Amino acid sequence: MRSAEVLVTSPDRNFVTLRLTTEDGVVGLGDATLNGRELSVASYLSDHVVPLLLGRDAHRIEDTWQFLYRSAYWRRGPVTMAAIAAVDVALWDIKAKVAGLPLYQLLGGASRTGIMAYGHASGRDLPELFDSIRHHQEQGFRSIRVQTSVPGIDAVYGVAAQPSSSGRYDYEPAQRAPLPAEEDWDTRAYLRHIPAVFEAVRGEFGPELPLLHDGHHRMTPIQAARLGKDLEPYDLFWLEDCTPAENQEALRLVRQHTTTPLAIGEVFNTVWDYQTLVREQLIDYVRSAVTHTGGISALRRILDFAAQYQIKSGIHGPTDISPVGMAAALHLDLAIHNFGIQEYMQHGARTDEVFRQTFTFTDGYLHPGEQPGLGVTYDDDAAARYPYQAAYLPFNRLKDGTVHDW
């Protein structure tokens, strides 16, 4: 490796990108963005990883992955795994460019012609929610996540109509501010409200439209079990992150009480976070992002493990995954057999200006394109116009002031 650069820019939000260049001048990009902790990963890369990469053989992807994972001694964690992911994806980008092929061809070729994506509809009330669903259908989405405000709660995760400092038309949780915003939460009010919302959505849009919902870790296992059971009549595609799953055994209780499909894992970093969940078939979809789970190499191994238990992919794809990380996900989606669905939250125009992309979204399906490598280039001049700005995700407090899962 001739050079390794850590690039930080903030067009619509903060992104950390690793750019590797070989002795022959081949460039590879990797996404290292960790929402709200971006500079931690940038420092980890600059101070500890970049010196280890110079002079290494860019084609030894697996050896480099194992070296970065095992040589640090202190393993796992989001900062370490995001840094390793950036290196891994950049090396795959390089290898595919040298081969003159789109990356998915090196992963075994296409297993499908397109990648089903879901969009993010939301509203403060039912008319606004219905308008949002119709808007996403007009954009081409065939599967839609439904989030809604809850009476008695001032601010709820996933509702686009609430204020955003980014100026985006849709939901963007990261607020550009020196401190995280405080929001309120009431689980009982939420549990009372949500089933009626899905009843209304089914009544308006019929039984065929695949609907998803994100609980965002805010319920206890028994509360999650109740919600899953209450939502069964509305035939959800999945209920996501119904309870904090660091305690993997908690999902046993949820599974015992509901047949609503479960998706877990956007905050997970390694296969060890999934071991019990997969082996005991406690979930139906793996939600990890390439960017936060050690890269293409590591997430492919997790999904191969999951495939043995008929568990499918649902790779994390919000706007805190840069277009580089999104492209990496799409190449993996296209190649694996146990693909389920891909989250797709479209980036803003400023981000698209910095990260030039070849992947497409047509009639509800994504495709990474046929350009050699990932299909993403980085515009340094555009990136320089958007310097880093401190930004944080919100956090929740209950009515009595207790900090709660957001």
UniProtKB/TrEMBL annotation:
Name under which the protein is recorded: D-galactonate dehydratase family protein
Record-linked SMART domains: MR_MLE
Superkingdom of this protein's organism: Bacteria
InterPro entries documented for this protein: D-mannonate_dehydratase-like, DgoD-like, Enolase-like_C_sf, Enolase-like_N, Enolase_C-like, Mandel_Rmase/mucon_lact_enz_CS, Mandelate_racemase_C, Mandelate_racemase_N_dom
Alphabetical list of Gene3D superfamilies matching this protein: Enolase-like C-terminal domain (3.20.20.120), Enolase-like, N-terminal domain (3.30.390.10)
Domain Mandelate racemase/muconate lactonizing enzyme C-terminal: 126-261
Pfam families reported for this sequence: MR_MLE_C, MR_MLE_N
SUPFAM superfamilies assigned: Enolase C-terminal domain-like (SSF51604), Enolase N-terminal domain-like (SSF54826)
